[in-house]
Amino acid sequence: MLKTSCLNIPFANPLVLASGILGVTAASMHKIIRDGAGGVTVKSISKAPRTGHPNPTMMGNDTYFLNAVGLSNPGIENGIAELIQFKKICPAPLIGSIFAGTADEFAELAELIAVAPIDILELDLSCPNVGREFGEPFAYSASAIGRITRETKAKVKVPISIKLSPNAWNIAELAKMAEAAGADAITAVNTVSGMAIDVRARRPILHNKQGGVSGPALFPIALKCVYDIYEAVKIPIIGTGGVMTGEDALKMIMAGATLVGVGSAVYYRGADVFGKIVAEMTEIMKQENIGSLDEIRGVAHGIM
Amino acid sequence: MHIPQMLSIKKITDENPFVKTFWFNYNLNSQPGQFVMLWIPGIDQKPFSIAYDDSAEFGLTIFAVGSLSKKLFELRVGDRVGISGPYGTAFSIQNDTHYITVAGGYGAGPLGLLTERLAATTNSTVDFCVGARSADLLLFKDRMAKLPHTTVQVATNDGSAGHTGFITDILSGLIQKSHGKKIILATCGPELMEKKVLDCANKNNVDCEVSIERFMKCGFGVCGQCCVDPLGLRMCMEGPVVNRATANSISEFGNYHRDKSGAKIYY
């Protein structure tokens, strides 16, 4: 009932682990598949290892989750070893994720990671937590997104998905530009910029001061982004941002998503949240006589 | 909610020349083996095991080894730090059992708290085994010696107190001595010491509980930094304290761990 095909890759269900939550190691990603996900996205990888920001890097309350991990990762060499190990122990679809400081570096890194058995490559050009070091120069620039997409596509055969920022007021335009430049899919959205302050400490809680907001507070923002992007492009969308429940996942699909990224829900409902969401989706689909996700994809647009 | 609470340091006591305990008036309601995250704004936030918790106050016993703990050693009574938790799994507390707790370094903290709870709430007996380089560095020897049905066992590398050598040298002897009783080995300390304790438990076929430390960012199961191979268990949630079967299933235990970036570091 939940079987989904995205870019001709079969997924047992549309739920994929979003990049940056768990997903540091092959073993951790395999556990997420055992817990019910249809696919996984590795935590974003850079050329050299990075330790990320000092702590606190994450915090959460009932309405939002906030993080500024600072793109810590073991570097491309160790990262590829984990991706190879994952495919050795698990046949589920694997989404690679990379970030870099320039279009040239994106293309170079894509070429390196393409030796790993990844099914889709996500370009994380919209992390809100590393300021001008990465992300920000590209996240809001249609021309930069076009250039990175084109240069990367020229180097690799693996389908690429461009991960966009909800901070961009013109996210649908950016998605259109990515599509025109050859992107195979859009991942929408990254976290939205935010901050928390501790009154007694009189300081921002995150060491990085600002961070990315996810969790329930991000959901309506992400849903609108996916809805707008669906009207602008024909390529599939990995709808990500604040999905907590089966109901949320179905809303994402009705807005036009093909796959549904799940991240912070691990914080709110545990690592086995994937299985819970699958069960909830199945239950609602039975009640609503929905036979397959293809029946309802984009249905909220009223054009079907 | 996983947000630090700013708590005032109520007192600071010396445990040995290099180790202090920082006390807070707060009902943490923790179980022995659990940990808290301690935040000093602008510096860092790290996990610390809990060495004292009597529901009126709790104490963190700390070596000054990194930037955060060094900064903490500069703070005074009345200064505030951010505490979140308690997090993670705990050692079991069972009746009719002979516990052999094996501590190295700051591992004496959670095992000291465990031994206190066992003495106060069970009829179990305890061999509290603690090792150090020399007699002046031994932690909680006097604190444990006061407890009922508890025997303190000491080893020092230089022979200045107790057995000369490693604390793990005396384990088989202690197991033989208590045969007939249900035995649990509980260990916390340097991983290669813990591995020897686990090996000893396997050899003698007795229960074992091991506290496995891995690099943690969040402490509440989201960042994935503390996941261990090959099952991907999170040491902040499914650990740090794991039973013998789980410890045996963790192939990286005693072999390698991952650093702050996620790269493997072999022991």
From TrEMBL, chain A:
GO CC annotation: cytoplasm
This protein's pathway: Pyrimidine metabolism; UMP biosynthesis via de novo pathway
Active site, UniProt feature: 127
GO molecular function: dihydroorotate dehydrogenase activity
Pfam families (alphabetical): DHO_dh
Entry-linked InterPro entries: Aldolase_TIM (IPR013785), DHO_dehydrogenase (IPR050074), DHOD_1B (IPR033888), Dihydro_DH_chainA_dom2 (IPR023359), Dihydroorotate_DH_1 (IPR024920), Dihydroorotate_DH_1_2 (IPR012135), Dihydroorotate_DH_cat (IPR005720), Dihydroorotate_DH_CS (IPR001295)
Gene3D superfamilies per the UniProt record, alphabetical: Aldolase class I, Dihydroorotate Dehydrogenase A, chain A, domain 2
Primary localization class, coarse: cytoplasm
Residues that coordinate or bind substrate: 43, 67-71, 190-191
Keywords: Cytoplasm, Flavoprotein, FMN, Oxidoreductase, Pyrimidine biosynthesis
UniProt cross-references to PROSITE patterns, sorted A to Z: DHODEHASE_1 (PS00911), DHODEHASE_2 (PS00912)
Subcellular location: Cytoplasm
Domain called Dihydroorotate dehydrogenase catalytic: residue spans: 1-285
Residues binding FMN, per UniProt: 19, 43-44, 163, 189, 215, 241-242, 263-264
Enzyme class name: oxidoreductase
Catalytic activity entry: (S)-dihydroorotate + A = orotate + AH2
Biological process, per Gene Ontology: 'de novo' pyrimidine nucleobase biosynthetic process; 'de novo' UMP biosynthetic process
Keyword tRNA processing: no
Protein name: Dihydroorotate dehydrogenase
Protein species of origin: Candidatus Magasanikbacteria bacterium RIFCSPLOWO2_01_FULL_40_15
Lineage summary: Bacteria, Candidatus Magasanikiibacteriota
Gene this protein is translated from: pyrD
From TrEMBL, chain B:
Keywords in alphabetical order: 2Fe-2S, Iron, Iron-sulfur, Metal-binding
Residues that coordinate or bind [2Fe-2S] cluster: 218, 223, 226, 236
Top-level division of the source organism's lineage: Bacteria
Keyword Lipoprotein (UniProt): no
Domain FAD-binding FR-type: 2-93
GO terms assigned for molecular function: 2 iron, 2 sulfur cluster binding; flavin adenine dinucleotide binding; metal ion binding; oxidoreductase activity
Required cofactor(s): [2Fe-2S] cluster
Free-text cofactor note: Binds 1 [2Fe-2S] cluster per subunit.
GO biological process: pyrimidine nucleotide biosynthetic process
Matching PROSITE patterns: FAD_FR
This protein's record includes keyword RNA-binding: no
Organism of derivation: Candidatus Magasanikbacteria bacterium RIFCSPLOWO2_01_FULL_40_15
Pfam families in the record: DHODB_Fe-S_bind
UniProt protein name: Dihydroorotate dehydrogenase electron transfer subunit
